[in-house]
């Protein structure tokens, strides 16, 4: 799980790394990369982000979960939902699917599967019911490894 603040921090540090690399003019490029990474990320290096790929995503927002699709990475979608939102957004899982038609089909299937949990008047938002959270946890466990302890 990655929350929106983790993403913002990662993006800020990535920008710092890119600025440091842009300053490189002479010398060994490998040394420049090591120095830029140290300045941007510290001793631990770039931690990367979980679920940084296209697919069908599950984003928790307070008592609700959004089931949507993206062809890029779901953090861009989180950025869209963050504005004016009083809740901390958390990316719970992404079912990796490269093909747009397959993503659309999987999203439609999940919307139908959890239709009884749909927030009235909201097409892609669902109540964070145990049935849905258990589905997400088991899907994540199959694709990513052991399920998060909070589930």
Textual characterization of the structure:
This protein has 151 residues and is α+β, with helices and mostly antiparallel strands. It is built from five helices and five strands. A five-stranded antiparallel sheet has the order 1-4-2-3-5, with helices on both faces. Helix 1 runs antiparallel to helix 2. The longest helix has 19 residues, at 4-22. It is elongated. Residues 147-151 have low confidence and may be disordered.
Helix content: 40-55%
Strand order in the largest sheet: 1-4-2-3-5
Name the beta content range.
15-25%
- SS-derived structural category: alpha+beta
Question: Low-confidence stretches at least 5 residues in length (pLDDT < 50)?
Answer: 147-151
- Shape, please? elongated
Distance between the termini: 11 Å
- Quaternary structure: single chain
Average pLDDT number? 83
Compressed to H and E, one letter per element, the order equals: EHHEEHEHEH
Strand segment count: 5
Q: How can the largest sheet be summarized?
A: 5 strands, antiparallel
**How many helices?**
5
The value of Rg in angstroms is: 18 Å
């Amino acid at each position: 799980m990655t929350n929106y603040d983790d993403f913002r921090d990662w993006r800020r540090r990535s920008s710092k790394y890119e600025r440091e690399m842009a300053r490189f003019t002479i010398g060994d490029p490998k040394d420049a990369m090591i120095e830029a990474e140290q300045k941007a990320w510290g001793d631990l290096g770039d931690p990367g982000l979980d679920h940084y790929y296209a697919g069908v995503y599950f984003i928790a927002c307070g008592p609700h979960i959004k089931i949507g699709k993206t062809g890029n990475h779901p953090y861009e979608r989180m950025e869209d939902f963050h504005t004016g939102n009083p809740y901390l957004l958390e990316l719970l899982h992404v079912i990796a699917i490269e093909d747009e038609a397959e993503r659309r089909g999987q999203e439609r299937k999940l919307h139908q599967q959890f239709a009884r949990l749909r927030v009235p008047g909201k097409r892609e938002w669902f109540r964070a019911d145990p049935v849905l959270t258990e589905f997400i946890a088991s899907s994540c466990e199959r694709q990513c490894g052991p399920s998060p302890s909070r589930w």
